TrEMBL record:
Keyword Zinc in annotation: no
Source organism (scientific name): Ziziphus jujuba
PANTHER family documented for this protein: PENTACOTRIPEPTIDE-REPEAT REGION OF PRORP DOMAIN-CONTAINING PROTEIN, PENTATRICOPEPTIDE REPEAT-CONTAINING PROTEIN
Keyword Repeat: yes
PROSITE patterns: PPR (PS51375)
Record keywords, A-Z: Repeat
PPR repeat ranges, renumbered to this chain: 253-287, 288-322, 323-357, 358-392, 393-427, 428-462, 463-497, 498-528, 534-568, 569-603, 604-638, 639-673, 674-708
UniProt xrefs under Gene3D superfamilies: Tetratricopeptide repeat domain (1.25.40.10)
Pfam family, one: PPR_2
Record's protein name: Pentatricopeptide repeat-containing protein At1g05670, mitochondrial-like isoform X1
Taxonomic superkingdom: Eukaryota
Length: 749
């Protein structure tokens, strides 16, 4: 039939819904007079209007005769087409005739349809005629047709929606009583309104039907709720409808609750959503897996894992099994918090309980492991996916490629990349850039460039990150000139290079010890591409010089920076200060501090710590104390490093009184001592024959899980053995064996 082409998925859904209508009638009569349900209104039953009678215009005698001829002809036809047998009537046929003919053939549904089709080919039928066919089709239970006939009307171009709605609704009500009297017709009309986005009209129609004492089905209302809550603006309206409709007799079921609970969650009101879950059972709707999983995943999303787990418990106690959606929410939560092992444990447990994870769950875990640089674990999962025939998608491939690239395993990354392409998945700029970066980092710059060309051939545009990776790769190979050329070319091609590109390359070069190249890059970039270093560039270079003890070069950079008007920050100064101290250049350190204070750059505790550490090494506790006082005078508070430095310094200078005092103060402030501070204190007290203090510290240290020097263990093993406490002695010996075998390095001062 011609109209079948109109049927869409949503139409089929409607039909499915309608097959379930009998279910709803267990809950309430499908259509109920408001008066029966709602006693408050039943007394005022005058409010309820009857459906109108159908009263068409009477035909003239000539028309009646004409109609009679056509009706007889079409009723008597066998297999001939209407077109042929009606050929002689065609010229005299008027739209008016259509309805009179319907009156005479209304009991033959197929004929009505055929005749309607015939008439439609000639001229657009009146809305009334369409409504009549709709009513007859409903009475004949051809709901698919009904849906199509209504939808067809709304799909006409240039329709004045609001006027058409009023007309259509009126005509439908007008033709209802005499042509069909099947209330499904209103449901389908309503559903089409909803599906075509006429939500206000749908709401008006619902109200209009109430005045006739009709209530639409839950099914229709659920469709309405779900369309309302498709976008954020509709949530409030959906909730309003949800709260109001029961007053007129709608009996919501689990599906309705699920829609609303989802909306409430989307509005971020998870407590209310949870509350509604508890309430729905009282009202006779059993929450299902969808209900639970909506709330559970929201709890995971906002970080309330405990509540999510409790709900899972409740749900399982009811015999409901967690679904992959829940599984994924929990796993996602754990992955986001870096708890990959726990996340995988959840996956295993859920699998044991028969939940089949989907590719999203696996991808979440794979991505999580890759981000933690645990590529072997990621790959195991990736492999497991293949064994279980779960198809990895674009995201999965990108994650694992990224993981391998980060780990420098370019052969594996390349294999996966090819597998991805052979599966018909198209790599994008990010995939290519990841690989290019990987190859550059492993020094395979040629490979990187060939990927770059491949990328360009595919019409993908390399971005700043891609070029940064390439330039970085070139620099690492010592090809700073070519890198500069490349950057210059990109620059002149209009791609905005930023100082981050620059800094990341300088940083990379410095880290790999290519400070000469880094310095060269800095100079050339200014010359060639007009790019200026910033204070981060300078600080990176200075740090590199400090590390190789080239303090004069570092200091020159500070001068240059200053001269060019870049204000060094405390970070820059701390880098230099640390450098001076590492090189034992105490006087320069002192001068730097003065300079800082002079220029109004506030040092911080780290700055002072560097100086104090150096004075302590030089056994100059007087100067140390002076600096400490200076620091406090600046309003800076000592931190854990300060205390550890001072304690070790005073112990070395055998000032156990001050060291002991600092220990107490530090503990009171909640700072922790390092093992080397404990060692220094214990040895100091022991030398002073303050055995009780030494022993207390030794116990405290062990409680902290710190390992003492072997020398200290020996002292205490002797001491306790002499006291005759065999058991403790043996315990200590065990500890010595365990720790001194395990321990490989000691803390340095
Ligand atoms: C709710 O009712 C509608 C219509 O009666 C039905 O299609 C749907 O399956 C019901 N939902 C549940 C969860 O029972
Ligand atoms: C001092 O500055 C350094 C940067 O050089 C920073 O890492 C550190 O956290 C700062 N210390 C304090 C106590 O603010
Ligand atoms: C000082 O405490 C910070 C954290 O507060 C810690 O990262 C650092 O390792 C501690 N330093 C020492 C020397 O204990």
């Amino acid at each position: 039939m011609k109209r079948c082409a109109i049927f869409s998925v949503s139409c089929l859904q409607t039909i499915l819904h309608n097959q379930c209508l009998s279910f709803a009638s267990n809950c309430l009569p499908f259509f109920s007079y408001r008066s029966c349900l709602y006693h408050g209104l039943s007394s005022s039953s005058t409010n309820i209007r009857p459906f109108p009678d159908y009263s068409p215009k009477k035909p003239t005698i000539r028309d009646a005769e004409f109609v009679h001829h056509i009706s007889t002809t079409i009723k008597l036809r066998r297999s001939e087409s209407l077109r042929r047998i009606l050929k002689s009537y065609e010229s005299k046929f008027r739209p008016d005739h259509l309805i009179w003919i319907f009156m005479s053939i209304k009991n033959d549904y197929k004929l009505v349809l055929d005749f309607f089709d015939w008439a439609c080919l000639r001229r657009e039928p009146s809305l009334e005629a369409r409504c009549i066919v709709v009513q007859i089709a409903t009475a004949s239970k051809d709901l698919k047709m009904v849906h199509g006939l209504i939808r067809e009307f709304w799909e006409k171009p240039n329709l004045d929606v609001s006027l058409s709605f009023t007309n259509f609704a009126e005509k439908l009500i007008y033709t209802y009583k005499d042509w069909g009297s099947d209330p499904h017709v209103f449901d389908i009309f309503f559903q089409v309104l909803v599906e075509t986005g006429m939500l206000n009209e749908a709401r008006n129609f619902f109200d209009k039907l109430l005045t006739y004492g009709l209530v639409l089905s839950v099914d229709s209302c659920n469709l309405f709720l779900s369309h309302l809550s498709r976008n954020f603006d509709g949530f409030e309206m959906a909730i309003k409808v949800f709260n109001e409709y029961p007053e007129v007799g709608i009996c919501w079921n689990t599906t309705s609750y699920n829609i609303i609970i989802n909306s409430i969650c989307q509005l971020g009101k998870i407590k209310e959503a949870h509350h509604l879950l508890l309430k729905m059972e009282f009202r006779g709707s059993i929450p299902d897996v969808v209900t639970y999983s909506t709330i559970i995943s929201k709890y995971c999303h906002v970080g309330e894992l405990q509540k999510a787990l409790r709900l899972i418990g409740e749900m399982e106690a009811k015999g409901l099994k967690a679904n992959p959606y829940i599984c994924n929410s929990i796993i996602l939560f754990l992955c986001k918090n870096g708890k990959l092992f726990e996340a995988e444990k959840v996956l295993r447990e859920m699998m044991m309980q028969g939940v089949v994870p989907d590719n999203v769950v696996y991808t979440t875990l794979i991505d999580g492991y890759c981000k933690l640089s645990n590529v072997p674990a990621a790959y195991l999962l990736f492999d497991e996916m293949r064994v279980r025939k779960i198809i990895p998608d674009f995201v999965t491939y990108t994650a694992i490629i990224h993981g391998f690239c980060k780990a420098g395993k370019m052969t594996e990354a390349d294999n996966i990349f090819h597998e991805m392409v052979s599966r018909g998945l198209q790599p994008d700029e990010v995939t290519y850039t990841t690989l290019i970066d990987g190859y550059c980092k492993t020094g395979e710059v040629k490979k990187a460039f060939s990927l770059h060309n491949q990328m360009a051939r595919k019409g993908l545009v390399p971005n700043v990150v891609t070029y940064t990776a390439l330039a970085d790769g070139l620099c690492k190979q010592g090809e700073v000139d070519i890198a500069i050329e490349l950057l210059q070319e990109i620059h002149s091609n209009g791609l905005q290079l930023n100082v981050c590109t620059y800094n990341s390359i300088v940083n990379g070069l410095c880290k790999s010890g290519n400070i000469v190249q880094a310095q060269k890059l800095k100079e050339k970039m200014e010359e060639v591409a007009g790019m200026h270093p910033d204070s981060f560039t300078y600080t990176t270079l200075m740090d590199a010089y400090c590390k190789i003890r080239e303090m004069d070069k570092a200091y020159m950079l500070l001068q240059e920076m200053w001269d060019r008007g870049y204000k060094p920050t405390v970070v820059t100064f701390n880098v230099l200060m640390n450098g001076f101290c590492l090189s034992g250049m105490l006087e320069d350190g002192e001068r730097l501090l003065e300079w800082m204070l002079e220029k109004g750059i506030m040092p911080n505790t780290t700055t002072y710590n560097s100086l104090m550490k150096l004075y302590c090494i030089r056994n100059n506790m007087r100067a140390t104390t002076e600096i400490y006082r200076g620091m406090c005078a600046q309003g800076l508070m000592p931190d854990n490093n300060t205390y550890n430095i001072l304690i070790k310094g005073h112990c070395k200078a055998r000032d156990m009184k001050t060291a002991g005092f600092l220990h107490k103060e530090m503990v009171a402030k909640g700072f922790l001592l390092t093992a080397s501070s404990y060692n220094a204190l214990i040895k100091g007290f022991h030398k002073r024959k303050k055995f009780v203090e030494a022993r207390e510290l030794f116990e405290e240290m062990r409680r902290q899980g710190l390992i003492a020097d072997r020398e200290i263990y020996n002292l205490f093993v002797d001491m306790i053995y002499k006291e005759g406490n065999m058991e403790v002695t043996l315990d200590l010996c065990d500890e010595v064996i365990e720790n001194c075998l395990v321990r490989s390095k000691n803390e340095d001062m």
